[in-house]
Specification:
Helix content is 60%, strand content 4%. The protein has 290 residues and is mainly alpha-helical. Keywords: Coiled coil.
Amino acid sequence: MDQQEQDSLNKEDFLAFCEIAYRLSALPDFGVWCLTIPEAAELLVLDMWYSGELPGIEEPEDWGGNEGDPRLKELLTPATKDFESRLIAAVEKGALESVRKQRDFDECLVSDQTVIDYSQLCLWLEERGYTAGDAFDDWSNDQTTLHDLLAQEAAYLRFELKRGARLIRRLEIERGIFQFLRGGEPLTAEDAIAAYKAMVLENQRLKEQLRHREEQPSFPVGRPFSKKERDTRHVIIEALCCELGINTQKRGASQRIREITERSPVAVDDGTIKKILDEIPESLQRRKKK
């Protein structure tokens, strides 16, 4: 591929990117938790295949588990097209609520520009007796991650505005400037931008945390228990446990006490309880000597 072809390809990629950005800007939360009809059909069919609902379709030979494998997509295409038609029909009838509809001049839905909400898709499936499986879980996890990343980006941009930036620009960093090595590879511009934003957000978080602590009233730190006071407390715990029929030195004592604390306003974990119980025999021995 010569340079002219590469430049043409880059221009096409850029235009496609701009078109996607424009469409996402018109959707709630920039399209997080939204799917086009073909995307929803593809996700559903993949989930059904994983769940064994499509027994006639075998996995490709030497398949490595990659869901994006073109061979797997080709095998699932007939079922995907079938469910794409069903989803279109459901949207047309109003059985499946859409976030955005796009029609052509023949009043037909343009499937790859008609968007449905994930929760509405799951509700539509539940009404038809289908329970979403692993593929839906994976997609949901990805959307959660995407939502968090967008929230962090928004927090960064808001902070930049708050501290006086009148014009927000993407931080442009020449790749050649960074000669630091990470795993034998130079730090890329994208890595540097992400690191810079992370530092800005972490710095702001620490400032807020410090301000919050400074606003809290200070309390004197109590002195540690003396050995006598600690022994007395251990004797009291031992007596109470005996009254409840709990042998503090037998297996399962920590769990039984934890279950009791769970019925109180504040629960205590097994590990903490065990550490205290392990100190009781030594305290009892000291008290007996007296």
